[in-house]
Amino acid sequence: MKEIRLAIAGVGNCASSLLQGLAYYSGSDREEALGLMHAELGGYRAVDIRVVAAFDIDKRKVGRPLEEAVFAPPNCTKIFHREIPPTGVTVQMGPVLDGVADHMADYPDDRAFRVADQEPCDVVQVLRESRAEVLLCYLPVGSEEGVLQYVRACLEARLGMVNCVPVFIASNPEWAEEFRQRGLPIVGDDIKSQVGATIVHRVLTRLFSDRGVRLDRTYQLNTGGNTDFLNMLEQSRLKSKRISKTESVQSQASPRLEADNIHIGPSDYVPWQLDNKVCFLRMEGRGFGGTPLELELRLSVEDSPNSGGVVIDAVRYAKVALDREIGGPLLEASALCMKHPPKQMRDSEARDLCARFVSGT
Predict the structure, then answer these.
(1) For 29-40, b where at least 16 C-beta lie within 10 A, e where not — what string?
(2) Which pLDDT belongs to residue 1?
(3) Who has the most CB within 10 Å: 70, 97, 246, 313?
């Protein structure tokens, strides 16, 4: 039976939504249902993804069965499918390093990280013993050292990787070459949502250019109440996130905006929003005869489920590449699924190229 053996680094809200989704789509009547961009991709369906290893550092998750840990605090994402079959996976203690911001300890137990009092496991050994094929990186924003630790483990244990966070690995030429030399695929960096703030901003920016409207200035302000937004209150952890989101939009602008005329990034933490993310977007431009055009948009989404379907596709692209012994960054899949890929493309172009990649043409 075909399967994709997946390891997860970071058992937060996104992992919770993913696990719920894998259980939800396991019914044959749901495989064709809404929420997935592809019911089948390269011969693999969502039901073919099997989680075989998981890592975290929170004391409420480490040592617990994965199907229980994904519902433990501080996770607060919407529960749309509580019944997750036993996975046989116990959450292992990962390396702490810079995986938690100092201010996170100042909040109540139901909101912040509480680091487990355990020695980190040997990540490479766990990956090898689990026979994992792809590592999915869900570490918090700003965890540069932590992400690199898992990158090295991937390379040593010979796994493909899907990097969902804005630490630049696939888009870093040196790391890209490391994966290429070992014949290991990587999809990255920084996951896009299905219909989220940045993808909507990209599409509208492209629309302005395609329709002959000169975009003069724009902003994207986001608020949320999950652990990701709490973590991002530490401004020093946001540098790569701002670069990732800004470049994703800038790549669709023609001409590119001056730095002072574009502002994109997380804005504030609102605890009662939980995993709901609200985006406020404004665009100012000039159309026919130089007449002004202004657009304002408010988008409200459940943040973690919004990327689940994209992750399922990214994992399947990585597995197809493994089957075909293709190493290095997957340019088409990265452009389609990630905010900061090695090569930016129009989303329509990336989608077409991904279809050709899967078909082998």
Answers:
(1) ebeeeeebebee
(2) 62
(3) 70
